[in-house]
Amino acid sequence: MSITSYRPADGTVAGSVPDTTPAEVDAVVAAASAAAPLLAAASPTTRAGWLLAVATALEAHADELAALADTETALGLPRLTGEVGRTAAQLRFYAGVAVEGSWLGVSVDSATPTSPELVRLNRSLGPVAVFGASNFPFAFGVLGNDTASALAVGCPVVAKAHPAHALTCERLAEIATAALTEAGAPAGAFGMVAGMDAGVGLVRADGITAVGFTGSQAGGLALWRLANERAVVIPVFAEMGTVNPAVLTPRALEHPDRLEQVARGFVGSFTLGSGQFCTKPGMLLAPAGEGVAEAVGAALTEAAPSATMLTERIASAAIDGVERLLAAGATEVARAKGPGAGWSADAVVLRAAAGALRDGSPLLEECFGPVAIVVEYADDAELATALDALQGSLAGTVVTDGSGTDPGAADLVDRLAGKVGRVTVDDWPTGVAWTWAQQHGGPWPSTSAPAATSVGAAALGRWVRPVTYQSVPDAALPEAARAANPWQLPRRVDGVLALP
Amino acid sequence: MSITSYRPADGTVAGSVPDTTPAEVDAVVAAASAAAPLLAAASPTTRAGWLLAVATALEAHADELAALADTETALGLPRLTGEVGRTAAQLRFYAGVAVEGSWLGVSVDSATPTSPELVRLNRSLGPVAVFGASNFPFAFGVLGNDTASALAVGCPVVAKAHPAHALTCERLAEIATAALTEAGAPAGAFGMVAGMDAGVGLVRADGITAVGFTGSQAGGLALWRLANERAVVIPVFAEMGTVNPAVLTPRALEHPDRLEQVARGFVGSFTLGSGQFCTKPGMLLAPAGEGVAEAVGAALTEAAPSATMLTERIASAAIDGVERLLAAGATEVARAKGPGAGWSADAVVLRAAAGALRDGSPLLEECFGPVAIVVEYADDAELATALDALQGSLAGTVVTDGSGTDPGAADLVDRLAGKVGRVTVDDWPTGVAWTWAQQHGGPWPSTSAPAATSVGAAALGRWVRPVTYQSVPDAALPEAARAANPWQLPRRVDGVLALP
Question: Which residues contact A180 (CB under 8 A, 6 or more apart)?
């Protein structure tokens, strides 16, 4: 058996990658398990050297990788070349976060007459299974945020190749393996498997200690259930994406040019990458009777995006999704035809009344692709009810009057903060910066672990657990926690933060 | 329907507490939900005032509470009076941790030409359901670590009364409610329900956002499964306890007096509170042929503990547990008879060969009560295999030669750290200090969330999730995250930790 790779632009076959056999999965996991203590024992500085080597190798192969990925995804060379650069930058960022060392959480309580000495710090979990996304073959792929953050804390990674770009995954694995070997990382630090059965086998494998996933709710929840059925249950950090609502404040449209500006911005955001973003704003909550739906429809017609989708299944799901929304009470406002050839979908703007947002309605669910609904509310009470009805999302957006002092912003920001992991103001949510303060993860069902993030410095925290050492002689402590603080880490000593 | 409270000393009825009806559960959860935004909006200093008021009220009622709890638990007045004091101290500790504010995790990334301003901080989840333990009616009870840490971060608590000491729970709830009201906390900040069905209803209630549990694996995993079946899955932090292995280093017995000292210490630890500690060391891994099992047996006979158990069910489970261990290949070394009257169990020392520790063996499972096994290994290889076979535990202990420089300590500390949440050296694990560096939680199945702790400063982190605010005007940010830093919090600014 093998995975067939297709060209979305015309639906022809681009190549194939063999499925990994169960015995091969076992061997890859065994290699990762053997590498685990070596990676965990390496200092963050040593591991940073490995990550930097992978980053440099990616950049050296940027053109080749972008061309290969464009064949398999049709996302375009400029976007894909940029994404290779972003992925290299992410690897460097996580390396730096690892060296800074706050993620180790070193905390020391001196002994007192009634309490023993306690030293607490985080410990790497062990081999991590990474299921990358269809829509970001590099930044959220086999060498993306999950892999980079896991390697940074000393967890070996076994990635699963994504069927939407299996050839690209295979090439990425070759490049990473060569770079890691060259940089002196232990064999088994990174491995890859391919095929649905191999993915299931990976989650079930005794040696795997945690799972990172980016993709659909169906896929993420299936892995989460599998992991919960293990004898030793392991955490699944599934980032699944949802509707990502945007809401207009009462004053947002007071200025005459604001409506057209908002409509264009919204269309630009929800059709970016053919709407294949987990942070796509899929819903715009707007006052009825202000012409918002019409303006968004006009902006779509003007922009006239031509959406080629990543896979045949994603294309048909987008088409079916529009039908499902129409059947649930939405009506069509405007449509931009897809290219027709290959994996084609239309970009569509729909409208619905806020009253239709009831528990169980398809209007509350993500339609992955270049599709968005303008939801019209009659008054504040109807808006409040609609906001309560929303599922948890990764991101939510407040659109204000643009002045920076809109008095309606604070209330909507707070309400959305109860529903999402990231709130933006006058800033469409489709960009996800990989920085210290990022949170990419929201309430269930947008992620399976709402307290975790898959992007940003805190992403490292997913792959560790704390251990406290009680009355343990200094020489028997992990190096990071010894009294001399050899790694120059920020520490908490008797409850007080101390910088190195 | 009602819960009958018994006197373990003689098995007579002490009283009863009515079961909470489904309508009453709904009302308690609704009150908690209504209180949630008020608690979340209060500053940590304000909330600390509420916790301190509860602490003071507990101390004022210490004698009354200890006497009532002794009737229901037979744990003895000295222990119970001390535990009330400890519970008050815990409340004050968590109040201080809340005010220090690191748990809010404020992180600010300034805008750059390619990246927007991001401000990340933790947000209270909302109403938390707390299922306290049978064995610590105060410190891990309805006003214990879970409740104190949840209130500290602004989450209302709905506790479930424990059937082993329902009258004590009822009285604690009265005292806490009066103290909170007096201190100005919103109505609904704390509530209680009683009865098995009410507990199930609580975990299923839409308004509940997280669950804290301390108790048996059967109980904890049942709640975890219930929570995983919700439409909106919520986290369950179940601290369930397991075997808590202790291991002798090769040199541990070189000194002539060491064996007797270790045997006495081990017996003291595993029979403390009739062995009803989740951190009870249930297994001592020792070299064969050194007389360790005999010495432990002799120490038990000498100590002659007389174990009254918390409930009839716990007593019979301890008795059945010994039979199960014997059937699995253990042999009896010594036995101290229980008092016979009431909920009585014998204290028992067993021995088994390390080779009997195979997957699925009852020898690898907790026997809650005054029961321990000396597991004898022939050589290092057999010890290594035995350690690998162990389930995850809350704590593990290394017994060295006592010199502080035992060269065998570091390796065993590291191996146990892979299996437990807390490693102690020459220090029995039954005490759990409530300090900054504590970790009370270990790998599955000792806890359902191995990265979390139910004791210590990090316990607050269970009841929050991060939200990032992107391009949000200062006035629309939560107060904790505003540029002027009005709460004087430690913050990370552009990746650099800054103390207030």
Answer: A50, A53, A54, A189, A190
Give the whole-angstrom CA distance, residue A272 versus residue A342. 19
Pairing mode of beta strands A347-353, A331-336:
antiparallel
Shortest distance, CA B326 to any CA of chain A (angstroms): 24
Place of tokens 């979990």: A125
Q: Indicate the residue type of A431.
A: G
Q: What is the pLDDT of residue B1?
A: 86
Q: Is B204 in a helix, a strand, or coil?
A: helix
Residues of A with Cβ-Cβ distance to B281 under 8 angstroms: none
Alpha-carbon distance B137 to A2, whole Å? 59
What domains can be seen in chain A, in order of their start residue?
A: 2-240+450-463 (3.40.605.10), 245-425 (3.40.309.10)
Are the beta carbons of A468 and B439 separated by less than 8 Å? yes
Hey, how many other C-beta atoms are within 10 angstroms of the C-beta on B453? 29
Q: Decide if pLDDT at A423 tops 90.
A: yes
- Measured CA to CA, the distance from residue B228 to residue B138 in angstroms comes to 29
Query: Shortest Cα distance from A70 to chain B (angstroms)?
Result: 24
pLDDT tens-place string over residues A165-221: 999 999 999 999 999 999 999 999 999 999 999 999 999 999 999 999 999 999 999
**Is the interface score ipTM higher than 0.95?**
yes
- A358 within 8 A of A347, measured Cβ to Cβ: no
* Interface touch A495/B423, C-beta < 8 Å: no
| A438 → closest Cβ in B102, B120, B234 | B120
**Residue of chain B whose alpha carbon sits nearest to that of A391:** B232
The token pair at A402 is 């643009």
What is the pLDDT averaged over residues B342-361?
95
Quick: pLDDT tens for B14-43.
Answer: 999 999 999 999 999 999 999 999 999 999
pLDDT digits (tens, 9 = 90+) for B282-299: 999 999 999 999 999 999
**Annotation says B278 is catalytic:** yes
Rounding to the nearest 10 degrees, give the CA dihedral for residues B473, B475, B480, B482: 60
Return the SS3 of A357: coil
B239 is catalytic: yes
Residues of A in contact with B458 (CB under 8 A): 105, 120, 466
The pLDDT tens digits of the residues spanning B129-172 come to: 999 999 999 999 999 999 999 999 999 999 999 999 999 999 99
Residues B478-487, buried b or exposed e (16+ Cβ, 10 A)?
Answer: bebbeeebeb
Q: For residue A252, what are the contacts with CB-CB under 8 A and spacing of at least 6?
A: A258, A262, A399, A400, A401, A402, A406, A408
Question: Percentage of chain A with pLDDT > 90?
Answer: 97
Could you tell me how many helices (H) and strands (E) chain A has, helices first? 13, 21
